[in-house]
Every structure is written in C-alpha cells, then in structure tokens.
Amino acid sequence: TFEHLAAEIPVARLDPGSAGGVDLVAALAAAFGDSKGQVRKNLGGYTVNGVRAPELGDGDLAGAQLLHGRWLLLRKGKANYVLGELSSPQV
Questions:
Q1: Structure confidence by residue, pLDDT tens digits, 7-56
Q2: For residues 33 and 74, is the Cβ–Cβ distance under 8 A?
Q3: Which of 14, 16, 20, 58 is surrounded by the most beta carbons within 10 Å?
Q4: Are 82 and 32 in contact (CB under 8 A)?
C-alpha cells in the first residue's frame, strides 16, 4: 500500500542515525526542505503518522514508530504530505 502511495505523493529518503533511529527534526527538515531551526520553531505544525510532533519529544524516532519497519507519513499543516522511507530498512 505504501508503495502505491509513494507514486502519488513526494517521498523523502531518510537515513537512520548511528543508533538506528531517525532524528525527528532532521527528518522533517529533509522532507519539507525547511531548515532545522524553522522546524524547531514551528514543531506544532507537523505530524508524524498522525501524531503531533511535539508529543513525540526530541530525539530519534524509534523503530516502533515506523510503519512496516521503514515508512513514516509526515504532514506539514493541513495539506502537505511527504512519505518518509528509511534508506536501509530496520530489522
């Protein structure tokens, strides 16, 4: 299903950090082309898999937050969606 969705909306390739997680601020900045400072300032306007970004806290998104081990549905505002795909799927 996510591969079909990837054909319809933009896809951002996300690199996992050294701990295997994905940095929340870096992922949002890369996906939407915003600066990290801009993302931090407006963090309340972003959602990850339907959860508001401030509720996720700072730091890395854990593997449990990835959909099917490699996808993140990112949203900015009401209508800007990007599908985040982990560059190397976690096991």
A1: 889 999 888 766 667 788 988 999 999 999 999 999 999 999 998 988 88
A2: no
A3: 14
A4: yes
- 1 Cβ contact list (under 8 Å, min separation 6): none
- What is each CA distance from 91 to 20, 23, 81, 87, in whole angstroms? 10, 18, 26, 13
Nearest to 68 by CA among 90, 83, 51, 53: 90
Sign for the CA dihedral angle at 36, 54, 43, 12 comes to positive
Nearest alpha-carbon partner for 81 in 48, 41, 52 = 48
| Stretch 77-84: mean pLDDT | 93
Q: What is the pTM of this model?
A: 0.82
